[in-house]
Design a protein that fits this description.
Length: 128
């Protein structure tokens, strides 16, 4: 299984970035997908999760990104996206895409124990 992120970079506060993650080697549409992030010295934390069919009602967001980030997926392309708007310096972190070991965003979606496969990460840096 390969999980490959792209789209990170350096952006000024208030700016936007769109992360992409393409998965191969498994039945992509059978699994929920998640985005996590980790800043230096911090634990890896769940940012967002999307249902296997991309149902908005089941999408989940961390409190710090609600209203600014939006997750979506295209099962025909085996790809999940994270649109990040209104970026803040505190959003600076390595962002990781991950398969979730369930078809929907379970209550424990933010727990790294629910991850099946990780990507290698893409760096997001927000300058003030």
């Amino acid at each position: 299984v390969q999980v490959v992120e792209s789209g990170g970079g350096l952006v000024k506060a208030g700016g936007s970035l769109r992360l992409s993650c393409t998965v191969s080697g498994l039945a992509f549409e059978d699994y929920a997908m998640g985005w996590f992030r980790q800043a230096p010295g911090n634990r890896r934390e769940g940012v967002s999760c999307v249902h296997r069919y991309g149902e908005d009602r089941n999408s989940r967001y961390g409190d710090s990104v609600k209203g600014r980030f939006a997750i979506s997926r295209d099962n025909a392309k085996n790809t999940v996206y994270l649109q990040m708007n209104g970026l803040k310096p505190e959003d600076t972190a390595m962002y990781y895409c991950a398969t979730i070991t369930a078809s929907y965003c379970v209550n424990t979606w933010r727990d790294t124990d629910v991850v099946g496969y990780w990507g290698q990460g893409t760096q997001v840096t927000v300058s003030s």
